[in-house]
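ok so for the tutorial part 2 we go from a plain amino acid sequence to predicted C-alpha cells. step 1 is just haveing the sequence, like this:
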Amino acid sequence: MRSTSMRADLSSYRRSLTAGLAAAALAAGTLTVAAAPAHAATLVGIGRALTDDAQRGIFQVTAWTDAPNAKITKVSATVRQGSTVLVDIPTLPVVPDPWDPSAANLFRLADAAKLKLVEDGGRIPALGTYAIDVTATDSLGNKVTRTDAGQLDFRLRPEITLVPTKPTYTDRNARPSGTVVGIQPGSGDRVTLADRPVTIERTSPSPDGTWSAPQQAVTDAAGRFTSPPFPISSEDLGTSVIHFRTTVTADTPEIHGTVTDYLSVSDYVSRKVAVTATADKKRALDGQTVTISGRVTDPAAAGAPVAGHQVRVRLGGPTYGTGPSTVVRTGTDGRFTARLVAIAGKESGHWFVESPDRYVSFPDLHGALAIPLDSRTDLTSVRLSADGRVTVSGTFRARYVAEPNFETSQFVRLEQLVGRDWKAIAWASVNSAYYNDFTLSAASKGGYFRVRHLTTDQFAESVTPTFRLTRLDTRIVSLNAGPEPVAKGGYVTVTGGLQHYANWAWRAYGNAPVVLQFQPRGSTTWKQMATGRSNASGKVSLKAKATGDGTWRIRHYGDGTHFHSPASAGGDYVDVR
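step 2 — the prediction. this is what the C-alpha cells look like for a chain of 577 residues:
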C-alpha cells in the first residue's frame, strides 16, 4: 500500500472527500466493503517527525484521521540506519492539548524512553543522523505508514559558557572567554569540543561611533577559549554597559547547531589613589587667574608619589561643563599645578579636582571659589536741597546677565570727595525683590560725589561717574531790631544785610526773598511776622507790630541755587513795655 501524508491545512478537502465517500457508500451499498480498503490509507495522515533540539534523544510527530467519528488510537515508530532497524518504538504517547483535551494529534517519545548511545545503555551505535518511520492507526482500523517521516538528529548540540571579564588599570582590554561543550543526546553528558572556531564581536559601538572588527578564537583541548583583546577606553566605561556576542556554528557528522551567547561588561578595576589640592584664592574676579595645586599619591605604596597621571581641574558650579577646565599631568613628585582664568557667569561657587581617567579612582575634591558677576550702578536722580542734604537714587544690577536674582542684599554707598580721599557718607541695601532700586541721603554742603558698590562674592565692584552738586551759602549780617524798648502795640523795625558766598567772597545778595520771624520769650517756636525782599544792595528792612517781649530775626529760604541762611545765626531781643 502506498503511504500518503495529509497536510493539516487541507482539512476542508479531507472533509469533502469523506462526505463523498459516505454518499458513494449509500448509493452503491454493495460496493461499500470493497471501496473502504481502497480509501483507508488516505484517511490517516502523518506529519514530519522532528527531533527535539534541547534533548536530541527525543522526537515528536503529528498524526490525524479524517474518518468520521474516529480518532488516532496508536502511533508507533522505528529508527533505522539504512535498512537496519535500530530501535522499535511500539507506542508514542500522546501529548495532551491544554486548550482542547479531546484533541489528540501530537505524539512524542517519552522522556523516560529517550534514545541513547550504546555506551550509555541505549541502542544507537554512534553519533549521527538516522531515518524515522512512523505508523499511525485510527479507531476505525484505518492505518498508514510514512517511511522517512523525519530524521533523528542524534548529534552533539553545542553549548557556550561565558566567563565575566573585567578591564583593569594595567590591562585596558576586554577578553571574552569561556568554554564550548557538546551536549550528548540521551545522556545529556557534556563532551569537550576542542579545535572549534568561536566568533566574538562587540555589539555596541565605541563612544566615537566606530565599531570593533569581529575576533576569532579556537577552543583548546579542554574546550576553553579566550578572544583576542578588545580595547576598552576610559570613555567606553562611561557608556555604562559594553555588549559582546559569542557564536559557535558546527555541522559535522558528530556536531550540529549554532549557539549564541551574550556578555555584558560593566565592571572594571581601577587604581585607587589619594589626592590633595588647594587654591590660591577664594574669590576671583572676571579674567583673574586661579592657581590650583596639589599632589597625587598611592596609599597602597606607602604614599609614594604617582607620576604621569592626568588630573582634571575646573571652575564653576557642581555640574560638569559649567566653567573653564583643563587637564594636567603629575610630575615625578606626584605634584600638579593648574592655572585657569575665571569667567564670570559660569555658575560661580567652587573649584573641582577630578579624574578624567576612569581607570584612576579618587574622591572628587572641591573648594569654595566665588567668581562675582560684573555689576553696574546707574543713577536716576541726584539732588542737593536748600537745607543742605544730598539725595541720590539709582539702580544696581549685573552688567551682562539679564535680570539675575540675588536674594542676598547688596550694599551701595554714597561717597564724597574730602581732600584727596573718598569718604562714605551714606549706605543703602538693594536686592532684586525690590526692582534693584536704591536711594541714598546725607547732610552735605555740596561737592564731588559718587555711588560705589564694593566687591562681594556675588557681584564685582562698580562705581558711578563722579558728579558735582553745589549751592551758594547765604547769611544775614548787621541784624538790628528797634526801638528798644518798644511800647506794647507799637511797631518793631528789623534791619540787616543779605549776603551770599560767590566768587570766593561774601557779597551782597540783592532782590532776594526774606522773612521776618519772632520768637516770644519762653518759647522755642518762631512765628513768621512779615515778608519782603532785599534791595539791590542786599539791604533788608521789615516792620511788624510788637505783641510782647521776644527775639526777632531775618531769614532767607534758599532758591534753586542758594542754601537757606543759617537758623542758628541768632536774633535781636526787644523788650515791650
